[in-house]
Amino acid sequence: MIWLAAIWSLGFWLFGVAIPLVAIFLEGSRDLTLNQFFDPVVLNVVWVTVKQVFWSVVFSGIIGLILGLCLGRVSQWGRGSRVLSIFSLPMVVPTVVAGIGWLVWIGNSGIFSRLGIHLDLAYRFEAVILAHSFYNIPWVALAVAHARRLVPESRIEALRVLGAGRWSVFVHGVWPSLRWAWATACAQVMGFCAMSFALVLVLGGGPPVQTLETEVYSRLKLGGVDWSGALICAFWELLLTLIPWGVVLFLQDREKFKISENYIDFHKKSNRVGVWATRSFLGLGVFFLFPYLGVFSVSWGPVLNLLRTPEVLQALKFSFSLSVWSSVLTILTALSALGLLFHSKVPSGVRSLLGFLFALPSGVSVIILGLGVWIAYGRWIDPFEGSPAAMVLLQVTLFFTLAMRTLWPVASSRDPRSTDVALSLGASSIRAWIEVEWPRWQGPVLVASGAVFGAVLGEVGAVSLFASEKWVSLPGLISQSMQGYRFEEAQILAGLLLTSSLVATLGAVELGSRLGGISRSP
Amino acid sequence: MGPVDYLREVWRVAGRYFILGCGVVFVLAISARWMVSPRSEPIPELTVAAYRTLMGKSGLGPLLFPLFERQCHCHVRVVTVPDGGALLTRLELDTRRGQFPIQVVLGLDQYLWSRARSYLESWDGWEPTGYQQIDSSLKMAPGFLPYDYGGLALMVDQKALSAKGLRSPRSVSDLLAPEWARTILLQDPRTATPGLTFLLFTYSVFGEKTFEFWKKLRTQWLTLAPSWDSSYSLFVKGEAPAVWSYLTSQAYHETHGEGARYRAVLFDEGQPFQVEAAALVRGSFQSAEQKKLARSFLEFLVSPEIQKLIPHTSWMMPVLPSTELPPDFLKLPQPVRKVWPDHDPETVRKVLEDWRRAVE
Questions:
Q1: Which of A201, A317, A430 sits opposite B13 (nearest CB)?
Q2: Confidence class of residue A455 from pLDDT cuts 50, 70 and 90?
Q3: Exposed site from A331, A409, A505, B290, fewest CB < 10 Å?
Q4: Is residue B263 a part of any domain in this protein?
């Protein structure tokens, strides 16, 4: 089994990440000089990106922490799991839909403006920060809430008995158990904001408000591809996204943080808050989805007619198929990678190296990776003929780290004693795994699949790089409608896309919660 | 434990997941079928690359290609790319791969064409029928066959202008007036050809002072959109009273009964023009017959039959002066002067580089 996991995960890394990156590096490094890395134009974009990331992380981190601490008290089995489901939805809202949704509210012709509240917020730096914060607060809150649930009640009680006040209980009893979950979530938010594309393009108002990702896009657009310029931006982007992640992993490792001790405590909680508090949190969860619901403000007459057209049905079928394949393969790849990482025969040095290699795709621009696939496999894949296989490969690469981090706590909290007991009682290794391990995995696997499915459904980069007339996805159809002056149609399709993503994710998260719960990376 | 026992054990233990497994396999199979079913198209004899809008529901493509197929008794395979810029990228990548499946590119403008010349055929003495009738100002060089053209202009929403107490600008410099702050929708010249045309137009108006103008203009635009369609969608939503677009956008609104509200504004300095053309791809022909077919397609493009379709499909002007224009096109304002911005690739690169430094 370990060999199969190794071949699958390393094969994916080689063909999906390494070869495309090397191909684009060879292409771009031909006329690359050191001075280009410090070109004032590039450094200015780096600075704007850092500033934007900083403020987005400050707001998401602080508000998410406070919210997560409260949510940790409510998120039990039963009623609380619905709160968790609602809070997990914003992360799968397609960014294009989010951009359109925000404009419906804060745009110059938006709802606030029509109500006489002139915010003058759209197309500014502040709008990007607002949108990023709204996107990421639930994510941070969820991570903190999960960590908070794992804090042993006995520890809190002991501190209280010893006379500790609220602050001391938090500092000495709670904070040590959730700081890494919080730091990791913040590192992920940093990566997301540094690589943010659609939201910055829609809400930022253009240069100078841009990120390295939009700069990469502008250097590769309009033909006459500026490979070296794009490569430099990609290098800075990789640095910005991987440094925080690396620092968190390094410090975490030094402090020998182990989630496994806590994870066993996971199922032992009881409700501590009342129905009204739970309802309030449900309302708060919906509040974080509210900006995106703006896309439904269309006249409903043409909706049904549009949804019956062959183009829309074909795009729906194609997007659905793509999501099924991408999510199944992403989960398989993540499981293989985790199997390899946590296998007892893998030396710790190799494990650290593998951990770094598997984290690499999370910091690479999809545009860079996509063009790498163009160059590397151009002889076999014609990008303009469209290639669902290339789309799936890119999407697996994009969402692999999301799945891996979601399943990380389950992998790291494995208790070999139970398996040993099963083996010593005469069970085969497969039966022992299915009886002992699978019940722990099934819920999180389903949750991760749902999250990946929803995210893939609204993904734009990979599908636009390898789309063609034959293979048009729902986001592709939105863009076609806009190009053809059919703006209301685009908004209806955005509503359809949002509904599909939310329903798929909500279904998977609900079912996953019943089967064994949601887990997050440490 | 032997391999047979091992498999038996797997089967015994996994038996309870059989239905679930069958379900997953069924969903994967259905998905695969949906993903591969469109592959049953016949192999074409002539392959044309065009940008996506051209192939849209109400675009020129759905009328043009069936008409040509009927005339030539051949199959035309259309490869679409997201926009004009991607046509050039396509040519670059094909050359890099050493594979040339496309014989004709449709939709290159003068800027893209000047950068794509090395990938395209010149006509080697051949001249398409109808080429002589095309206005000489639209012709660049043999190999570039113009099929439509249009001026660019600032489109204004009269209703929004009066609500804000603004008057239409008469000159490009008027856009710098304080009352125009955050009211104009422009396109990023790095990613959209109308945006690039506006930048090069300002360069032809202001010369070396262009970048001073752009530094001041930074406070005036509401957003610098990545594409024409995103900026225009914001305009019709009422986000801003003015957008940089095509003169013919006025004809579009006229046809849809909104002519009084959306008007094109002409500048004293004139209007920049954009020409769209078709070209043959170098090294792409397998046989003399295929080349003949590609040439006949070019001739078909500039035939009166197709030219009369241009206004209400591409929303551009036909290149044949004899083409009868629809009434909404006849009402379009006439520019004071037609400006043909410099499309030399080196100039474009330098202007873009300086613009980047001025704006960022």
A1: A430
A2: confident
A3: B290
A4: yes
Nearest to A371 by CA among A168, A165, A216: A216
A291 shares a domain with A329:
no
Q: What is the DSSP string of A351-369?
A: HHHHHHHHHGGGGS-HHHH
Q: What pLDDT is attached to residue A215?
A: 85
Pair (A44, A23) in one structural domain: no
pLDDT at A283 over 60: yes
- Which chain B residues have a beta carbon less than 8 Å from that of A107? 234, 237, 239
Single-letter amino acid code for the residue at B302: V
Q: Are residues B212 and B287 in the same domain?
A: no
Rounded-to-integer distance, Cα B105 and Cα B92, Å = 13
Q: How many structural domains compose chain A? A: 2
Asked if A100 contacts A202 with a C-beta cutoff of 8 angstroms, the reply is yes
Residue-wise pLDDT tens digits, B1-37: 566 666 666 666 566 566 666 777 777 777 676 666 5
Shortest Cα–Cα distance, B230 to chain A (Å): 7
Structural contact between residues A52 and A211, judged by C-beta atoms closer than 8 angstroms = yes
Q: Which of residues 295-334 of A touch B (CB under 8 A)?
A: 317-318, 320-322, 324-325, 328
Give yes or no: residues B232 and B281 share one domain. Answer: no
According to the model, what pLDDT value does residue A371 have?
77
Q: Residue A257's pLDDT is what?
A: 46
Q: Is the peptide bond before A208 cis (omega within 30 degrees of 0)?
A: yes
Residue A483's contacts (CB-CB under 8 Å, 6 or more residues apart) are B52, B53, B56, B227, B229
Query: In the prediction, which pLDDT does B237 show?
Result: 87
- Please tell me which of the candidates B49, B193, B224 has its beta carbon nearest to residue A205: B224
Kindly state whether A479 is in contact with chain B, defined as any CB-CB distance less than 8 angstroms.
yes
For B141-183, the pLDDT digits (tens) are: 899 999 999 999 999 999 999 998 999 999 999 999 999 999 9
Strand partners, B245: B153
Can you tell me the distance from the alpha carbon of A434 to that of A512, in angstroms, rounded to the nearest whole number? 17
Residues of B in contact with A483 (CB under 8 A): 52-53, 56, 227, 229
Domain that includes residue B303, residue range? 46-149+275-323
Please check whether residue A23 touches B, CB under 8 A.
no
In a domain? residue B342? yes
| Structural domain boundaries enclosing A264 | 33-296
Better-predicted residue by pLDDT, B203 or A444: B203
- List of residues 6+ apart from B56 with CB closer than 8 A: A480, A483, A484
Query: Does A285 or A326 have the greater pLDDT score?
Result: A326
User: Which of B56, B90, B97 shows the shortest C-beta gap to A379?
Assistant: B97
B118 and B248 inside one domain? no
Pair A284, A411 in one domain: no
Report the CATH number at residue B78.
Answer: 3.40.190.10
Q: B21 CA to chain A: closest CA distance, Å?
A: 12
pLDDT, tens digit, 9 for 90 and up, residues B38-86? 544 554 579 999 987 788 778 899 999 999 999 988 999 888 877 788 7
Query: Among the three residues A271, A296, A321, which one is the final residue of a domain in this structure?
Result: A296
Is A123 an 8 Å CB contact of chain B? Answer: yes
Q: Domain count of chain B?
A: 2
Of B13, B84, B88, the CB nearest to A434: B13
Best mutation site among A31, A220, A222 for testing chain B: the one with the most B CBs within 10 Å?
A222
Which residue of A lies nearest to B12 if distances are taken between CA atoms? A431
CA gap B324, A8 in Å, rounded: 64
Report yes or no on B318 lying in a domain.
yes
Ranges A87-91, B194-198, B250-254: which has the least confidence: A87-91
A70 and A20 within one domain = no
Residues 80-109 (A) with a CB less than 8 A from some CB of B: 103, 107-109
ipTM over 0.85: no
Choosing from A237, A268, A296, the residue where a domain stops is A296
| Statement to judge: residues A99 and A40 lie in one domain | yes
Read off the pLDDT of each residue in B193-197 and give the average, rounded to a whole number. Answer: 92
> Are B228 and B251 in a shared domain?
yes
Together in a domain, B51 and B178: no
- Our CA angle for A494, A500, A501, nearest 5°, is 90
Residue A304 maps to which CATH number? 1.10.3720.10
**Are B345 and B310 within one domain?**
no
Q: Determine the residue of chain A that is closest to B219 in CA distance.
A: A205
